[in-house]
Amino acid sequence: MGRLTARRPVLTVTLEADAARTRRRPDTLAAEEPLEIRVGGEPLAVTMRTPGHDVELAAGFLVSEAVIAQGGQFRSAIHCGGPGTGAAGTTENTYNVLDVALAAGVALPAADAARRFYTTSSCGVCGKASIDAVETVSAHDVAGDPLEVDAAFLLSLPDRLRDEQAVFTKTGGLHAAALFDGASGELLVAREDVGRHNAVDKVVGWAVLADRLPLSGTVLQVSGRASFELVQKAAMAGIPVLSAVSAPSSLAVELAEARGLTLAGFVRGSSLNVYTGAQRVRVPGED
User: What is the DSSP secondary-structure string of 166-196?
Assistant: First the structure.
């Protein structure tokens, strides 16, 4: 797994009826390292992420921040040297700094609007001054997307996502997101990361690099809860349906309703809750 995982010793303690049993063994942990995203050489944000698919992560992040809205607006990205020294005192590339170049004519993020703050792996909007600052207007019309999907199809997605979580199987410590074609049911892409928002950014970034925005007619399945930010990222990428294994927040539901996005939560086993956009979910026996 390379930099995706790390091996560390662990003491396992098992409490029994009349004694405690201990065992020392190596354990596999999900890697977590900082990534500084720069645009045109200027720092924009730092996020804690699981290394891998960094260019997709940066591209998806720029979509959610309304810096770009189409694949053609993202030109290239390169890892820069980070802290540390290599042989003979040379600067060692830690692959934790990524500099993005935008296409000609695409405006760079304004200096006063740049997200120059520390983003934790659990919250990608920490540090935003207000809700208004994150309710970015999408360039893509989600409300007008005519997609309809069967409830049974949505219920199949958590298991299909779980089958793609190779690093989670080894560590038990990563979130995941996957994009499905709503008409054919095809799995388009799946990504894992220590941050749920990063996993979604990597999925959206994959679409940017493949020049597939907007993601009309698709369903985004996530492994955890549906936060405000995940709804925002889906809307910014033009994804009409967001399905989550766990609960949505109240603000996530409000934003999904305002954007015309279908939001399903507690998608597990044989049941699910549809919080907004129920017209897109076909239920057996209902016209």
Answer: HHHHHHS--EEEEEEETTT--EEEEEEESSH
pLDDT in tens, 132-187: 555 667 889 999 999 999 999 999 999 999 998 877 677 777 899 999 999 999 99
The single-letter code of the amino acid at 103 is: A
Alpha-carbon Rg for the chain in angstroms: 20
Q: pLDDT for 64-90, tens place per residue?
A: 989 999 999 999 999 987 554 344 445
pLDDT score at 165: 84
Active site residue 126: no
- Backbone φ and ψ for 171, nearest 5 degrees, come out as -120, -30
Catalytic residue among 66, 123, 188, 209: 123
- Residues 6 or more apart in contact with residue 85 via CB below 8 angstroms: 91, 92
Pairwise CA distance, residues 235 & 261, whole Å: 7
Fold of 33-134: Ubiquitin-like (UB roll) (3.10.20)
pTM assigned to the model:
0.88
Give the span between the Cα atoms of 136 and 82, in whole angstroms.
31
| Residue (of 5, 78, 68) closest to 204 by Cα position | 68
Task: Count CB neighbours of 124 within 10 A.
Answer: 27
How is the chain split into domains, by residue range?
A: 33-134, 149-282
Secondary structure (DSSP) of 125-166:
STT-S-HHHH-PPPSS-STT----EEHHHHHHHHHHHHTT-H
Q: How many helices (H) and strands (E) does the chain have?
A: 7, 15
> Looking at the domain that runs over 149-282, which CATH code has it been given?
3.40.140.10
Q: How many CB atoms lie within 10 A of CB 143?
A: 12
